[in-house]
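[Q] Does anyone have a clean structure-token version of this?
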Amino acid sequence: MSPWVAAERAESQRHEARHTTRLAKLLSELSERPVSSIPSACHGWAETVAAYRLLDNPSVGCEAILSGHQQATVERSQLQEVAWLVQDTSFLNYGTLQPKGGMGTVKERSREE
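[A] Here you go.
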């Protein structure tokens, strides 16, 4: 497990060790393939199902998942003399209407007008 995953999970899901372990595994898998979907990032069907079960678990909410990240962010920022908190409202559009050789387009060309 990478050091950043260990730091991020330290505070999250402290009350349930199984959830903490699964969350750390999911974070590691997603960090290896950051633009992939969960099924693509997970290494097989069993891990994909486990990831979705974790995220669908009523006792594992967004606040519980993000609590480790929030605590790690506070700790990292306290070590700095100055911390910039930048709000980025930009977005990237990787879609194109011009397909590349051997590849399709991510946008649909046909629409009702």
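[Q] Thanks! Anything notable?
[A] The two ends are 51 Å apart (CA to CA).
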